[in-house]
């Protein structure tokens, strides 16, 4: 019998109750006006910040196989954060896993989500096979937020955690990097 592994992942978080949804108090229009009170705290960012238990986290997926993610390495090379992990298919059939890379500022100057998804990579592996997965992201994209007072993106100098796993919750490998200066920038 041929078993084909689906390898799908959730692109959103399923709350346990409708009332646990970040937009619950803001849902609907008043006199034709819709208010978005969630700010950047939508999806997994809201559930992390409020520590609400969820039914299924962002990135959750079922598989006919199992995977192990290990050996996290983080380096700053030129203007990029280069992250590497070893992924092993520890199951009995071929399958795929999505490695998710989150960044969290240790001491932000503003209220920010606990972690923010900054990159991901999908790997296909045979049973027992291992592969190194590399994810690279420009430091300014990994660290920046929109500073309304400066009408610009702000990449704050400081310490940042790198968290890697296969969903927004559960076991995440952790390392860190540091940027020494604050930079303002516009455009892409």
Describe this structure in words.
It contains two helices and 14 strands; from the N terminus they run βββαββββββαβββββ. The model has no long low-confidence stretch (mean pLDDT 92). The strands form five sheets. A four-stranded antiparallel sheet has the order 8-7-12-13. The protein has a three-stranded antiparallel sheet with strand order 5-6-9. 21% of the residues are buried. It has helices spanning 44-50, 139-143; strands at 14-15, 29-30, 33-34, 54-56, 67-77, 80-89, 95-105, 116-125, 130-138, 144-147, 152-155, 158-165, 173-179, 183-185. The protein starts with 13 loop residues before the first strand and ends with a strand. The longest helix is centred in the N-terminal third of the chain and has 7 residues, at 44-50. By secondary structure, it is mostly beta strands. The chain has a single domain, classed as Immunoglobulin-like (Sandwich), CATH 2.60.40. The chain is flat.
Please name the fourth-level CATH homologous superfamily: Immunoglobulins
Using the CA coordinates, give the radius of gyration: 19 Å
Order of helical and strand elements: EEEHEEEEEEHEEEEE
Structural class by SSE content: mainly beta
Major sheet details: 4 strands, antiparallel
Strand content: over 45%
Q: Could you tell me the number of beta strands?
A: 14
Q: Number of folding domains?
A: 1
